[in-house]
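re: that chain from earlier
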Amino acid sequence: MFVEQSRLNIKFGVTNVKISESMGRKGVQVYEYIEIVLVNKNNYREVPHPITSFIYDKWRFTSVNNQLARAKQLTPFLNYVFIECSSKYRLKSFSDLKIEHGVHFLEYKRKQGCSRSTIDSYDSTLKHFYEYLSRNGGLNHFNKDDFKGEGLKSLFKQHMASLPAPKLEDDKARRLEDHHIIPFIYTAIRVADDIALGIYFSIFGGLRGSEVMSIKRSEIKKLGVYGEHGLIVKLKTDAKHAKGSGNRVKSPGVQPIDAVKQLLSSLYKSHLDRYPEPIDGSNSLFVNAWGTAMQYQTYHHKFKKVKEAFIETLINSDNPDDKLYALNYKSLNWSTHIGRGTYSNNIAEECNHLVEIMRARRDKSPQSVLPYLMHTQKSIKQLNDDIDEMFEGDAHSE
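^ sequence. v structure.
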């Protein structure tokens, strides 16, 4: 599989392949594929590797995001055992792989500081990879029966010396306090005006940061001249202009953006006036300093500046409560997703059933919703009870 002397000059990588097909009057359809490649470290030339077939064998009918994530979990393992530790393992091909190679890799990732959930993800991808190789006659030290029945639960974790301890406490800030929502948006206007509208979309529409970046100007329906009564945005991935996984839409569909007084229409009009259509033909609502479609990495970087400025404002406040909130915000992990969390918390107060919240957030699984419900005044049980009985119970308790 490898020429020994060339190992130090190559590495496994993942690339996106985009193929454009003319659809006549309907424009151009862009198809996107994930490929595992061998990269020449000297000239950066890439050669497709046939092991790409594993990704499509297992995850053919899943999203490009999922395929990309799986490929990016596999390639570090391949680089570790075949490139970085080539002198230690002296593997000639995939058929030489053993359990110990997967175990050693997971131990290596643990020492790098990977969390328990990240180790679980690597373990899941690798066990499917081994099963795929065995099924196709590509493992000398296994047979197909080794992967039947309970065999696919885990191949490696049980052999590890130790696992990262699961987090006993949630160290993430999942929402902004109600009285901090508008000040946070105003901080964005002051610090990073080009993403202030995007932050509004997250807080009052529940959009993920990547979804904010995917919005097209032509895919916005205005309720009022400038959205005085709200906006409706259509969300879908633009494979042609999305770079990496940042600007991809996890749950395609339409999403209403609520109007709060005149703030939405003011932000929307100001944004269109200050930031004209991008020059790259992407039709993106958000543009970077070069006039092309803004990517999530840029949005994330600007959001971080807004976050830091907002916390600094609280620290310098004369209100002792603000200083306490500043310490809390500073001690917890949070980024662009806090807008979606704030939105989730607000709609949870208005919904009577878990399914309603899932629909509002365009979620496929209730597991995504549950962490946010812990911070609402209603419990999951109360969400499924009759709302009149709930309020009657509250009255009796007083």
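Residues 237 and 248 are 5 Å apart (CA to CA).
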